[in-house]
Amino acid sequence: MAVADSEYQLGIKRGGGVVSTEHIRDYFGATSDVHANPNRDAYCAAFVNWCLKRVGYDGNNDAWSANLARWGKSTRGNKPAYGAVAVIRFPTGGHHVTFVNGKAPPAHGQPRIATLGGNQGTGHAVTYSSLPESWVVAYRFPSDYTESDDDYDLKLMEHGGPQMSEASTR
């Protein structure tokens, strides 16, 4: 999570200038889609793969978010855990992938998770966001990650970030 947060602190976003473009190009370098356009293409899965590699884990080398649902190993009971990769399927059908950062305040009686990921929000940035847990189809850890009970003790993030939508991840 520290690697992802450092990219957030840099303000990386699609169309954000030379520094952002180079960082997003580097994210795609962690996948087989090395010729992707960093100012046009969704980079959420590339960002996850890049972050995983930076901390010594193998990703799936794929820039398509839905394919991470079969990567690594499931969390216990497919429950949210800090730092886990969350694979999302929006009610409208699209997919996204991000990291679990904590719990977000519930909305309309629905439990929500707080996330940190790439290609999120109105600026298609590396940013914090939140979404209903029901949108997550898989929570995944690297296959060689050793889980602990603490991973599942999610902290409440008073402001879990703005509500995620499919439009904010395209």
Task: Set out the fold topology.
Layout: H1 2-10, H2 18-28, H3 44-54, E1 73-74, E2 85-89, E3 95-107, E4 110-120, E5 125-132, E6 136-141
Antiparallel strand pairs: 1-6, 2-3, 2-6, 3-4, 4-5
Helix pairs in contact: 2-3
Domain Peptidase C51: 41-102
Question: Your description of this structure?
Answer:
There is one protein chain. The chain is α+β, with helices and mostly antiparallel strands. The chain has one domain (2-169). Helix content is 18%, strand content 26%. It has a 6-stranded antiparallel beta sheet. Helix 2 (18-28) crosses helix 3 (44-54). The longest helix has 11 residues, at 18-28. The protein is globular and about 40 Å long. The relative contact order is 0.19.
Summarize, please.
The chain is α+β, with helices and mostly antiparallel strands and 170 residues long.
Shape: globular
Structural class: alpha+beta
- The H/E string reads HHHEEEEEE
Distance between the termini: 23 Å
Question: Helical segment tally?
Answer: 3
Strand order of the largest sheet: 1-6-2-3-4-5
Fraction of residues in H or I helices: 10-25%
Uncertain stretches = none
What kind of sheet is the major sheet?
6 strands, antiparallel
The number of strands is 6
Radius of gyration, in Å, reads: 15 Å
> Roughly what fraction of the amino acids lie in strands?
25-35%
Q: How much is the average pLDDT?
A: 94
- The total number of structural domains is 1
Pfam families: CHAP
Question: Any descriptors?
Answer:
18% helix, CHAP_dom, alpha+beta, 170 residues, six-stranded antiparallel β-sheet
